[in-house]
Design goal:
Shape: globular
Helix content: 25-40%
Order of helices and strands: HEEEHEHEHEHHHEHEHHEHEHHHH
CATH topology: TIM Barrel
CATH superfamily: Aldolase class I
Bound molecules: flavin mononucleotide
Distance between the termini: 21 Å
CATH class: Alpha Beta
Number of helices: 15
Strand order of the largest sheet: 3-4-5-6-7-8-9-10
CATH architecture: Alpha-Beta Barrel
Strand content: 5-15%
Structural class: alpha/beta
């Protein structure tokens, strides 16, 4: 049976030892004060430099309203003390929902979204004081080739992609330019609602292979949304322009963007044309700078595709295959990509991804990265499911509790694949262990020993 490196560190020195053995560069600082730093976003303040990534629970109602577990999740996140709460993937049209329980922002659901946000903000005030307000972003999405609004796959594709489209027939129709134009307006309508709900910002999601992310890599598409850089970024930039024109002040625009798909060219974005295992950040850097010129001030960088190469975007100990690299190498690659983007656009607030696998040592890497100008905010995903109070503990106790930490076991993702409601099976077991067990029933056992991901 093949073995792979897993987290086995008892001290920061042991982490440093492996970093040096592997010959990778990861910034580290033991002075965590910098994580308390507030960040100005126009006339708003992010109260510290720790954030929670968008983390979908797949637990809304069939109409796309938040449900019991959605409310619970955001209340826990809000009480956890992270200065930035990035609300999960939220569909802008019914047909673009990734699952029948994905939340969906539309006029009928507006009041429910308001209740979700208001309850979270009230919980934060209750714990941190009258004037405390985390900065809130809602992630607007169309799931593209991963759309499954009624539970059955109903892909909406912008390009043919032999790596990602194995089950999609070769003559499957592409979304037309007219439909894309119409969809741009749907994002604007969703942004208007998000502003009325009271979110500080909307994220025009462009990561992980969903529609907008796929368009960035639509090298082979014909027409005005494919081919050249200008065409492939048109959808995203049109939405930004239309929101700016249509809404004006009072709502910030953010983008969660893949900077490196790790899918071969001409089907992946941010990849070296001859070797997709190497990032080529020329285009992502160009795009981030255009976004800055258009007034976008917050970008969350991610990498990889959760359906194709999950180890790239979320290093793990246990997953669907044995990753072809040490998780520290994956973390180092992701952080280096983020560093290059931050340094190319120093005034952009860049939120970094890649901390959950590092467990209780993440704060030192977060502090090191901010100290050395690699990024501005450290974002946590799976860790927030496992240990929503991580930020409060870092800020008030100067440490995370290793016993409460995410163990990077991928069970939260497995629940999603099994069509359940996602959360931490290990540290929030009372709720999520039964859901996990139920979802696994009748499914083939996961072969965790496949050696590499499909290339
Ligand atoms: C269960 C689950 C749900 C997720 N939901 C979203 C989402 O709604 N939007 C998004 O951009 N990324 C989503 N992600 C990706 C995470 O935000 C994050 O990028 C990833 O887990 C890596 O960060 P981490 O190492 O801190 O976990 C999700 C990941 C998991 C495991």
């Amino acid at each position: 049976m093949a073995e792979h490196a897993k987290f086995r560190y008892r001290s920061l020195d042991e982490v440093k030892e492996d970093i040096s053995k592997l010959g990778v560069i990861i910034p580290i600082s033991q002075d965590l004060e910098i994580l308390k730093k507030t960040i100005s976003m126009g006339d708003k303040i992010i109260p510290n430099s720790l954030g929670i990534h968008p983390m979908e629970g797949c637990d809304g109602t069939v109409e796309g309203k938040p449900d019991e577990l959605t409310y619970r999740r955001y209340e826990r996140f809000a009480r956890g003390g992270a200065g930035l709460l990035w609300f999960e993937a939220t569909a802008v049209v019914e047909e673009g929902r990734a699952n029948p329980r994905q939340i969906y922002i539309c006029p009928e659901n507006k009041e429910d979204f308001k209740k979700l946000l208001d309850q979270a903000l009230a919980a934060a005030r209750e714990d941190f004081g009258h004037d405390y307000r985390p900065y809130t972003v809602v992630q607007l999405t169309h799931s593209g080739r991963y759309s499954r609004p009624t539970g059955k796959p109903a892909p909406i594709i912008a390009t043919r992609n032999p790596y990602l489209g194995r089950d999609i027939p070769e003559d499957y129709p592409l979304i037309t330019d007219q439909e894309l134009e119409r969809l741009e307006d749907k994002f604007v309508e969703a942004a208007v609602l998000a502003k009325e709900v009271g979110f500080d910002a909307v994220d025009i999601k462009a990561c992980h292979g969903y529609l907008n992310s796929e368009l960035l890599s639509a090298f082979t598409r014909e027409g005005k949304y494919g081919g050249s850089f200008e065409n492939r970024t048109r959808f995203l930039l049109n939405i930004v322009d239309k929101i700016k024109d249509g809404i004006g002040e009072g709502l910030d625009i953010a983008v969660r963007m893949n900077a490196y798909d790790a899918v071969p060219y001409p089907y992946g974005w941010g990849v070296d044309k001859d070797d997709f295992l190497k990032p080529d950040l020329t285009e992502p850097i160009k795009l981030v700078n255009i976004l800055y010129d258009k007034g976008v001030r917050l970008v969350n960088i991610s990498t990889g595709n959760p359906y194709y190469n999950p180890h790239v975007g979320r290093p793990y100990d246990l997953g669907y295959y044995i990753p072809p690299e040490h998780p520290l190498e994956g973390t180092a690659r992701m952080l280096d990509i983020i560093r290059q983007i931050q340094q190319s656009c120093p005034d952009m607030v860049i939120m970094a991804t890649g901390f959950s696998w590092l467990r209780e040592f993440a704060p030192f890497i977060a502090a090191g990265g901010i100290q050395e100008g690699w990024f501005t905010i450290a974002g946590f995903g799976r860790q927030a499911f496992a240990y929503p109070d991580f930020a409060k503990d870092i800020i008030t106790k100067g440490a995370m509790d290793s016993r409460k930490s995410c163990i990077a076991c991928s069970k939260c993702s497995e629940i999603m694949r099994d069509r359940g409601k996602a959360g931490c099976v290990i540290k929030d077991a009372k709720i999520y262990a039964p859901i996990y067990i139920e979802g696994r029933k009748g499914k083939p056992e996961i072969n965790r020993n496949r050696v590499a991901y499909h290339v």
